[in-house]
Amino acid sequence: MTHSPVSLAVQAPTVAASSKRQSLFVAVLLIVALAAPFAVYPVFLMKGLCFALFAAAFNLLLGYVGLLSFGHAMFFGWSAYITAHAAKEWGLTPELAILLGTLCAAGLGAVVGWLAIRRQGIYFAMITLALSQLMFFVALQAPFTHGEDGIQGVPRGHLFGLIDLNDTMNMYYFVLAIFLIGVFFLYRVVHSPFGQVLKAIRDNEPRAISLGYQVERYKLVAFVISAGLAGLAGSTKSLVFQLASLADVHWHASGEVVLMTLLGGVGTVLGPTAGAFLVVTIQNYFATAGSWVTIIQGIIFVICVLAFRAGIVGVFAPWLKKRGIDA
Amino acid sequence: MMTLFGIPTAALFGQLLLGLINGAFYAMLSLGLALIFGLLNIINFSHGAQYMMGAFVAWLALTYLGANYWVALVLAPVAVAAFGIVLERTMLSRLYKLDHLYGLLLTFGLALIIEGIFRQLYGISGMPYAVPKELAGGWNLGFMYLPIYRAWVVVASLVLCLGTWLLIEKTKLGAYLRAATENPALVQAFGINVPVMITLTYGFGVALAGIAGVLAAPIYSVNPLMGSNLIIVVFAVVVIGGMGSILGSVVTGFMLGMLEGLTKVIYPEAASTVIFMVMVVVLLIKPAGLFGKGA
Amino acid sequence: MLKKALIGAACLTAMTVAQAQAQQAYSDNKIKIGILTDLSGTYSDLAGKGTIIAAQMAIEDFGGKVNGVPVEIVSADHQNKADIASSIARKWYDTEQVDAIAELVTTAAAVAVREVSKEKGKIDLVSGAASTALTNAKCSPTGFHWTYDTAALANGTANAVVKNGGKSWYFLTADYAFGHDLQAQTERVVKANGGEIKGAVRHPFPNSDFSSFLLQAQSSGAQIIGLANAGADTINSIKQAKEFGITQGGQSLAGLLVFITDIHSLGLDTAQGMMMTTGYYWDMDDETRAWSKRWSAKMDGKMPSMVHAGTYSSVIHYLKGLAAAKTDDGMKVADQMRALPIKDASGFAKNGKIRADGRMVHDMYLAQVKKPAESKGPWDYYKITRTIPGDEAYQPLADSKCDLVKK
């Protein structure tokens, strides 16, 4: 986030020192990300990265435009289907299959966004939820998605026809690259003049309108970007797991991404990533324990809403900020 | 076989009747949601879970206490309402000053917890709950064989919805409620205890869900997931009807149930999506909903 | 004295060396078998916890060790979802040194695990899932399909129903690979016997209210409503057909996949007279009775379905394969499993043999549900009316689309 007047008042370090610390902070995170697969099960890390990108895309809407979409799984899940189908049936290379999935998600986002931004607040949430349920049923019945079976045995293929993605390490660095590109893109969007207008809309929509901004158009563009990046995450996940299934289009997945963002910290850059990894860890740990995952997720939801609305990163952000690090 | 527009009439009327039964559940649930939304301004995402709890109370009462269906019909709404009131007092009431979205998120989390616990305890294969013997059997209507129990569900739901409507439109208590929906501060100033009214309204709203759950138990069998998919359809019903009027939510519920039944005859593949498609059309033409006031 | 000690030491060394060799042959000095099944859902009765018990019995009966290396079980609930099954299988193989996965009810889940097992060269022993895809397009050199399949069900039940005069059919089909496959196999048999298909309706899986689908089936006017579903879905369809007076109206239901646990839930009053195909019945001979009673003692008096017995049989045969191969390398164990005779204490797999496509072919049985008066008590439900020889019951190897079958 940019420096607000409040944080400037709190003995802000000099700009030069701040940016140096910021670079150091980013560098440390990068090294951790590059070294992680040597210490941790890479498939788990890749799952975390995909959900982290998904949550970051969702956060653009909730954190910076103030729109709660309760149907983001439709972009995540449908792009997974498109990518899986393109890679398996049409034999597209992974980068093209992912690109196609992302574009389709953005296209779907344009239609859904155009419908949903007619209403605000709770209505917006319910409409996105209902539309995602519509897309769930389409996924259930469309022949190419293979209903309950999903699209299985999706080939990971060779990146640019050269790099064999069946190698776990190659796949990991490919996923990491996609994640970094996606998050960097979001960071640029949020810190651009366009992002400033979004925040103005979030904070006071009538004022933004009176300043002459075409609020609807800004909201729609934000929605399309968010949907597209959620799609990028879903496409990548379908290649990691070589599977596209109904679980990713189900409203439970929409709920999960809300939880990840809320837990990590709404409107922070790193929050969704932290939240995503935490939720995926819980899922991983309780994977064989039936519905305990659901119960624990529900409890975290309740705690977050009642007592922990800033989220993990939201709690640490002021402390880091004092030390010149923007989380 | 008689046909109407090329469709066998037996199948047509049969499916319409089944649609009416589904519509009865949509109506009862959307009515409760609309009541709660009117006064609390939150969308109660745990409504589906509370509906499921109603069915479970009936099943548990039968299995462990030997209490029959009619006892359950009273016991379940009371138990679900009590549970709802506790939730409202301990959790929901802390959120009234915040963005209404937090209410949605909280009740979503509660729905996950409730469903998860029941799944953990009872699995998801569903527990059978027998039709009460007073309502067993069926009538041969010529075009179809109608189980008496299903007819009872439609009648009971109509009576409940009509009763609720009368309570709100024709009694003094209902007048307070309507006034508090419009301007809670003013009503409070007149010496009416608005917080208690809010609590009771929430309790009443979820009690409706509890009764619906008992009514559903013999039809759908008692299953921890029975509410979770239904609630999203009901959300669409609410968006279509608009939150403005009690009668609106009831009428929309029944209408959409029958529309679904009709779709099953004409184009079965679209039956599960037709309500959402109607929602899209309504949003395009009248964003505030069919019975909604303003945008 | 010295001589004795020397001999003793030599013996000890020899033993240690032998043991070390045996242990080296099995990676990480442990054999781990994963039981991946439905522990909470629609199929938890016919498979579920009972399959874990059956697998434990197999390990105990084998002595708990293979050539001195201990055997362990891990288990998990795949909730009948392909994605959950696939990610658990991957995790088991990658991080928990699981050597083989068994049971795998629900075709969607079984196929998902088959993909992972094939990629990793690990053994899978499918018992609960039914689709013939597992021995056709999805076959694997290390994958086995043990208990039954849709072809065997159709060749058994549909054949018998059509020959008894049920010529026109309408299907109520669970909307996923298993249901589609069961319907297709049954249609093939019905048509081959001069029957007619009036149509089909697909219902979501799992489902609780079948009323509108049953009305569609009723208005088709077909003599037979074929239930191409399983478990709780079948039970609910049969109950609701009774509620809507469909059976009183002259149409009959044909359960295309019915387990003894389903009959137990329905009760003989509702189920009497139904015909079905099964791979196992506890009350066939002394061997099946003895094994089933042992299983029953651990399962609160229930009796095993064919999936329970099949899981036992497949796990114990896998252990034999491991012992003979002296390694846990999937390919080598699979070769041994194909070569060894199939015989175990459960009495499952009469005349069993494993084919190149991974199908374990064995005798199947056509059964009819007893009338309440004929039954001597709980679980005394079937009259076995015919033994169907394995080669007649299953899809001929020549028709298999599996690329491992040499043509």
Please tell me about this protein's structure.
The complex is a heterotrimer of chains A (327), B (295) and C (407). Chain A has helices spanning 5-9, 15-35, 42-64, 73-88, 94-116, 121-141, 168-190, 193-203, 205-210, 215-241, 251-264, 271-285, 292-307, 311-322, and strands at residues 151-152, 158-159, 163-164, 243-244. Chain A has 327 residues and is mostly helical. Chain A has a domain at 48-249. In chain A, the strands form 2 sheets. Chain A has a two-stranded antiparallel sheet with strand order 1-4. In chain A, β2 and β3 form a beta hairpin. In chain A, α3 (42-64) packs antiparallel against α10 (215-241), α4 (73-88) packs antiparallel against α5 (94-116) and α11 crosses α12. Chain A is globular. With 295 residues, chain B is mainly α. Chain B has one domain (7-227). In chain B, the strands form 2 sheets. Chain B has a two-stranded antiparallel sheet. The longest helix of chain B is centred in the first third of the chain and has 32 residues, at 9-40. The N and C termini of chain B lie far apart (48 Å). The model of chain B has no long low-confidence stretch (mean pLDDT 88). Chain C contains 14 helices and 15 strands. In chain C, the strands form 4 sheets. In chain C, strands 2-3-1-4-5-6 form a 6-stranded mixed beta sheet, with helices on both faces. In chain C, strands 8-7-9-10 form a 4-stranded parallel beta sheet, with helices on both faces. The longest helix of chain C is centred in the first third of the chain and has 24 residues, at 2-25. Chains in contact: A-B, A-C, B-C. Chains A and B meet through α6, α11 and α13 of A and α4, α9 and α11 of B.
What is the assigned CATH homologous superfamily of the largest domain in chain C?
Response regulator
**Strand segment tally of chain C:** 15
Low-confidence stretches of chain C: none
Question: What is the makeup of the main sheet of chain C?
Answer: 6 strands, mixed
Shape, principal axes of CA atoms of chain B: globular
> The biggest beta sheet of chain B, please?
2 strands, antiparallel
CATH fold name of the largest domain in chain C: Rossmann fold
- What is the mean predicted local confidence, pLDDT of chain B? 88
Structural class of chain B: mainly alpha
Tally of distinct domains of chain B: 1
How many helices of chain B?
A: 11
| Residues in helices of chain B, as a percent range | over 70%
Computed structural class of chain C: alpha/beta
Protein name (chain C): ABC transporter permease
Keywords (chain C): Amino-acid transport, Signal, Transport
Family (chain C): Belongs to the leucine-binding protein family.
Signal peptide (chain C): 1-20
